[in-house]
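[Meeting: bench + compute handoff]

Bench side (C.D.) handed over the final construct sequence. Compute side (W.E.) agreed to return the predicted structure before the next meeting so the bench team could plan truncations. Sequence as handed over:
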Amino acid sequence: MDAARRFTPNKPVVAAWGMGVDSTALIIEWVAQGLPLSVVLTADTGVEREETYAYLPIFQKWMDDHGIEHHLVCYVPKRFKHWPPYFTLLENCLTNATLPSISFGRHSCSSKWKIQPQDQWVARWQPAQRAWAHGQRVVKLIGYDSSPADTRRYAHREGHVSPLYDYRYPLREWGWDRQRCAARIRAEGLPIPIKSACWVCAAQKTNELMTLPRWCLRLIVLLEARAAPRLRNVEGLWRTSTKSRPGSMTLFIRANALLDPAEIDAIIAGAPVDLVDFQRVAADIPIERRPQMREWIARFNEGVDRLAA
């Protein structure tokens, strides 16, 4: 049975757009088939690649041209205790002296920074509230394709049942792989987005890390140095070493001369100590006047720029 006949038209339909190839192609083809689409949601972790953020307005314009409602959503923490306020995945990890959960073999960072803010937005959305009040579910479109990699990802969610959502995987229903998705985007006259992924993610490949700008590499060194005292069975962001790379991205950055060794050493020796001092001072300031973590990161970036000059 094809997608049109399986679709229930009176249900609200939400598409999760991850700013990558698969979800972009899904939305383009879904709209081309004349299927209803109520809203598109994009969750921003704050640490997407520069190229991904550059693609955001391109596809936003396409959605505007096609009359598609779309929103950028973010996880917003509400309790900071004595910490400086933080608003991105990187700031969260630096605050708690840890690494993203995927580096420990878990996936709670995706749940917290991507799924949760989308679900919270939908929970406040009147069409969803009306549907739930009448015992209906919201249809959520997810862009897993038919490639082996996404088949493994899909296997983890297959059979997942929610009282609020009907999860649909149109690319798998259509039998589309990543190449087919890229071809559909080209046929629409749009550029192909790069792989959408956080640049602090353990799933990042070595060739992808080597294309990062220097400011990202410096923050990776900082993140691993900040977390190092608390790590036991994890070497770094890549978790453990393989034949092709170390478990620490810092070691890879050093071995491939992506940053000057003296710059790496200065970050490791000084930045975590300065960050702890910043947190200690901030703890005594009332929350409404407390400096934010992003202010310290801006000072860090300015400092390493002067060091490298």
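W.E. noted at the follow-up: Residues 206-308 form one domain. C.D. will use this when planning the next construct.
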